[in-house]
Specification:
The chain contains four helices and two strands; from the N terminus they run H-H-E-E-H-H. By secondary structure, it is mainly α. The protein has one domain. Strands 1-2 form a two-stranded antiparallel sheet. Helix 1 crosses helix 2. The longest helix is centred in the middle third of the chain and has 9 residues.
Length: about 80
């Protein structure tokens, strides 16, 4: 059975050809597969590869503007509560 070794920040940066500061920026994303051992970040290469191979969401899709439209219509900061 082949055991996978967790990578350090420096190893991941070298593997992905990015700087260490960029690796630390990636760790701020809660969906990026990383974990801490003491004070140091570690990464499973197979999880990082799966994360990077995952298709991106449509970056040009328009966000939902429903709350904004209701706010403009009512003139209040929050939409009114639903009638019960």
């Amino acid at each position: 059975m082949d055991k996978e070794k967790a990578m350090s920040v420096a190893e991941l940066g070298e593997w992905l050809n990015i700087s260490r500061s960029t690796v630390y920026t990636l760790t701020s994303d809660p969906l990026f597969p990383s974990f801490k051992v003491g004070r140091e970040w570690r990464f499973w290469p197979s999880d990082v590869k799966a994360y990077l191979d995952k298709p991106l969401a449509d970056l040009w899709a328009r966000p939902s503007r429903r709350k904004v439209d209701q706010t403009r219509r009512t003139g209040k900061r929050f939409p009114p509560p639903p009638n019960r």
